[in-house]
């Protein structure tokens, strides 16, 4: 029997074409008992390969191919320690100053234990180095035979050194016809045109998956070398250690075990949270702590508590989300805020002893200060023991087309033009299917536009590499903490962006090694609250000792906040500011965090398209009677008007009606949410129906209907614990908007990236009665901030938004002020002439002279210290008009603060009978005319290949999505994509996928002054 030992998967980036699964299936199809995968320099595909081989019932041989000075060297691990050395070796090579530098022999010697090496000796240099490898690997070194024509001299050379010869065949793709595609991948990797590649750049000739029969035929004269593949496989029979916890050591006071220490902290926290520990609280704590101890997960809680204590001590706002809020221990440690007892949250939704993977505690942090928390983790637990989690970026339709077309020599301009014609929705080849169920190619439309063999080959190659790994990058928030060096368990590398150490394995693969994983994700909503809290604390230090104490003291019952939420006036508020969400808040008359939780659970694609939201609203309004299939469901579903809104409700029904343990109930929920129709589900259904009848007196027919209801809604259910965490942030946002509107809007505007454009937030600030000012040298900071002018809190745009103003000049402006005159400012700050001119133009020197007079003086030329030679001539002309200020501010600031563009054409808009967007969205199925300016737009193509436009229109009251179909788009293209005010008439409809109103445009015209 023969087995391939040196296969390369697609995780040999832009070298291999086959996935680990495809390689394993090919080996099984050929009756091979084992398969070796030796990807070049990386171990990214190792876990996927192990699972693929086990599914194919063949033995996985884990390996790595490294570069030596004379060529490549495949290595195979014979044990868990061998795997660790592969990880250390791959990591060390990836972390070199030049990752492409060959491996030194010193490094190889230090990490050679439990590794088999398969060396080559095709030339003099290779032969000399092979002799050196013999000293390193001894009887774990084999001589590779790839060409039977040189078998006799190689056999003689092997005998002279006392090593075995083994037949190998390098595999880079599955079928011989894929050789040209591998050539294209090589061109992409080397960033070279195809016609410049040499044979040395490419994979060896014929590097496809040769059958066992072909290998036996080719090497029939070298039976011993063929047999060595089996002997090598037998030396590599270890099972990679997956699924076992690898918990780090954490600092524990002397005399305490981790379990005792965690209990001590949890009970202390419970007293702070609840005043005293009641029997119910103690019982819940005991249950959770016993489960945590049994599974050995104490370090997870202790590490996360330490990390978040650091965040609290350094004033970084945080909020743990997801199922972690179901844990009372996490609540008592200060990791989570929502009270799991009040909210009936079940611990098993977070940590189910029936599941083997460690639980996730996902934490959101202020995005601006997130890096300081991550630095703390690295510093406290050791640079070697911590790494950010990697993620695999794959070729999508546009990136695949762009890279392939470049390899074929197409000009960048033509590549961009082709890419723009691709549908936006396509991620990969399997996303849409035709009438026969076959995948629809995202390149079909381009094939019609670009006929010819060259283009056909480009589109074929681009489609063939869809979904293949392109490169590795950093996961948005995940990091791992290991019991020792991370590289003892998983390989690492340096990310291409910040140069941070990341795992070569993605999140799913890392989790299988049982490492403590913490998700620290930066979110804008907490950055806004953090900024607001700092403003308030600095203004009222006697009331608030720290910025986080501002947020902690936010009342949970405030009528003004309730009114704001019920009226949907929540622009700027975390998670509840979109038009559809604000409409949902109004529909259910949301007034509390519990109501916000319901809105968050309702306003998602599942409930919107499945009718759950409509049923909830009808019952809330009394338009539909609440009917329970059985009276015992009433206490479980009353809070959600008889519909299953939260995942936790499935657990409650299974637990309380049918006696499922909470662990069993959670497994049931997971199976239902994944729509698993298998045998296990049938067994669970029979158990539920029979136990519900025995325990709760629910007849079999009714029990089956309850089961069907659970199954129908389980896929739409939202984690109540997650909703509770986000609802708290949303409530605090609304509280800040009500009681500190200036500080809140300054923070919203300072933290870019909300649902709306900056213009909408500026308009919202004005509607709150705030004075919004352009940047000013005596009042502005780098970003939006509040300053008191003549006793009034005013909102000033930041100096950082002024085009061409450098960080150095901004810092000097803030440090050296106040300024009494232009001369004073220029002499002390000494800005460049363009900086000074832009400051004057946007009104940053208001009060020190009119804009025309200041500009004339600047145009006269100036040197620091000589400005007194030039007097400001206030007779130059009157100050700029409103329109002049708007034009210049739009150019230099990116937005007009002097006025909204619609304010200049208000009379024309009124004459046209246009209604405000905020009013228009209430007129569903009616024809309306609205006025606005383009906030964003995106072109798309219909099935017939015609261009249409999706446009986001903005006025002073909000935004509205507009659909411009091809016939109208052809007529009004220039108007629709301009920045000028426009009038749009059409019929308002509801997009059932998002439950957002959208306007189907029938007429578009420019508003003229």
Automatic annotation (TrEMBL):
Pfam families: DNA_pol3_alpha, DNA_pol3_finger, HHH_6, PHP, tRNA_anti-codon. It comes from the Bacteria. Coiled coil: none annotated. GO terms for biological process: DNA replication. GO terms for molecular function: 3'-5' exonuclease activity; DNA-directed DNA polymerase activity; nucleic acid binding. Its main location: cytoplasm. This is DNA-directed DNA polymerase. Residues 3-70 form the Polymerase/histidinol phosphatase N-terminal domain. Keywords: DNA replication, DNA-directed DNA polymerase, Nucleotidyltransferase, Transferase. Its EC number is 2.7.7.7. GO terms for cellular component: cytoplasm. PANTHER family: DNA POLYMERASE III SUBUNIT ALPHA. It is found in: Cytoplasm. NCBIfam families: polc (TIGR00594). It catalyses: DNA(n) + a 2'-deoxyribonucleoside 5'-triphosphate = DNA(n+1) + diphosphate.
